[in-house]
Amino acid sequence: MVKTVTPGAISAMRWAPSPDSPADVPELVVQVLDLKSTGTRNRFMFTANDGKMKLKGILPSNVESEILSGSIQNLGLIRILHYTLNDIPNKSDKYLVVNKCEAVSPALEMEIKSDAGDLDCGILLKPKQEDETNSEVTVEESGNLWKPKQEAEVGNQVKTGPGIHLKPKQEMVAKSAAQIVHEQHRNMAPAARLAMTRRVHPLVSLNPYQGSWTIKVRVTSKGSMRTYRNARGEGCVFNVELTDEDGTQIQATMFNEAARKFYDRLEMGKVYYISRGTLKVANKQFKTVQNDYEMTLNENSEVEEASNEASFVPETKFNFVPIDMLGPYVNGKELVDVIGVVQSVSPTMSIRRKSNNEIIPKRDITIADETKKIVVVSLWNELATTVGQELLDSADQSPIVAIKSLKVGDFQGVSLSSIGKSVVKVNPETPEAKKLRSWFDSEGKAAQWTLLVQA
Length: 455
Hints:
Blueprint: H1 9-15, E1 29-37, E2 44-49, E3 54-59, H2 64-69, E4 77-87, E5 94-105, H3 116-121, E6 138-139, E7 145-146, E8 158-161, E9 164-166, H4 177-187, H5 190-196, E10 214-222, E11 226-230, E12 233-243, E13 249-255, H6 256-262, E14 271-275, E15 278-281, E16 293-297, E17 302-305, E18 336-345, E19 349-352, E20 359-368, E21 373-380, H7 382-385, H8 387-393, E22 400-409, E23 415-426, H9 431-442, E24 450-451
Parallel strand pairs: 3-5, 13-16, 21-23, 21-24
Antiparallel strand pairs: 1-2, 1-4, 2-3, 4-5, 6-7, 8-9, 10-12, 10-14, 11-12, 12-13, 14-17, 15-16, 18-20, 18-22, 19-20, 20-21, 22-23
Helix pairs in contact: 1-4
């Protein structure tokens, strides 16, 4: 197991502040210092240390369990698999946003500190037997290759101990992470180098204080064009929900000229590069996605369809609310995600909409969870006829459903309804689903269910 940091890891990240994908990230092992909670759920700040330089940063929310279990801890080592460097307002320094990482080693005895000479080569020497000096190739943990020396070179060698011969330092071939990244970039074909110039930022890394950025997102919800009137006159507005390949979402709003410019260009389900927008803290009363910020695009913003490129299907991220905790959300603007075991599924019903007399399909499903409460979820339109039918066909197997973006109403106490952007996953491969299935199979089947009512 690697027991040291990658030489020049922080320099490498400064040189390439926003790699396009984990495949573009070299080996980056750093030591964790000053690990502490941000005060926000699931987020932890830390200082990355490569022995020579340090950089303040934040860890991804999905490593909370590893931090709580001790896999990631102060003085321990992590491997950074994907990251972004953000500018700090009014300062020349950068802030490290780790998008993906893995634990490498538990806490070491002390903070890693090395002088410039040690880190320039980054070698951990292993003793060798004297009689093997001229026949073996030594591969160190740091990945550096030491070849046997030819007899003609003995005069230029430096002997450091029994059986170990090194060439003078200026002849060493060890390279830092920064050098490796630089050479990879230099050796790329022109088209590949051009692609790297479009540095895509993950949505989780955006904040109102950074400068220019470019995101690659899919339009996962699109509202209709609305008109309004205020003291300054009439105007129009529409908004979209954008999702990146990590499943992070953000709402983007366009007014007037920007709305007219981008309404037809932004199509549901397509992937775009977007830049030159602005961010502000989201209004909790009106936000429809789990993000602290919301985006505004103006007439000078840039929207380019990512047409001749490999597409992606965004990962659906859930923030489940237990059934017995739905009461405070009744008739509120905030949408909820739930997970439950299907207890019953109704036939499809035809409902006439009061606003325009349109007839739309509806199907009710009843779900339960470990709180031993049940709630009715109304699936509308396509969800009623597609996923709803699938659930009816498998109802005797008590499938698990995870549903994103449900509206909470007060019909028969507390009820849930799907909307246009709701997502239903049947028997998803998630830890929550596996835990619920295990509980239901072992004791939930015999549970006495209680219909959730508003307190």
